[in-house]
Amino acid sequence: MIASSWAGGWPTVKGEHLPYVIVFVTMSADGKIASVAKDSRLSCPSDKRRLHELRASCDAVVVGAATVASDNPLLTVRLVEGVNPVRVVLDGRLSINPSSRVVTDRSAKTVIAACYDACDEGKVTALRSAGCDVRLFKCVDGYLPLKEVLTYLRDAYRVKKVLVEGGGETIWRFFKEGLVNEFRVTISPFIIGGRASVTPVGGEGFRKLGEWVRLRLIHVIACECGDEVHLIYKVVGRR
Length: 239
Hints:
Layout: E1 12-13, E2 16-17, E3 20-28, H1 45-57, E4 60-64, H2 65-71, E5 86-90, H3 101-104, E6 110-115, H4 121-129, E7 133-137, H5 146-157, E8 161-166, H6 168-176, E9 182-188, E10 215-222, E11 229-235
Parallel strand pairs: 3-8, 3-9, 4-5, 4-8, 5-6, 6-7
Antiparallel strand pairs: 1-2, 9-11, 10-11
């Protein structure tokens, strides 16, 4: 099977194309992306390189505030040649630590999406002074309007392709709002267990079969390490 091009089939808002959204996760063989202790070291070197290659092919990389707080990621392209994507942190309450690497590192632009009614004006000013683009949105029940966030990225930064790396709650919101075009998952040779361990897609979940997101497998890649497999799916349902 051959992976199809990312062009075309974009979700729309009022007839306008939104960026193409790819979700990438690496999970254990029993479907966990992190242990109860939040240890997420699942990727082999080849899988890490695959992630960086994908980053280099995207215009923006998105994570939630919890991922920044727990992992303090840099979200830049390092293992391959390429241009750094715009880093986007979904942080409704603007809880980000100003010493986070996505704030202090100037090798890529950082956009922080937050809610109007949950932000300290002084912190907004400080983050903007540090070089971040703090964009405030009108939120509902504390949730950012992801379609508006994508529209802003498209209009302000000419973003056409977005990589969502986590965490599980952020990925859930993208699926719930019908914004995911492609789902990529590497299956790593570990059993983690634990009902409180982190799964790729969190949230309250879809209850009925008619609500579930339907995928079509388009590509299977045997990892160079010999113990992992990378699967690429297109989202074909609930559009």
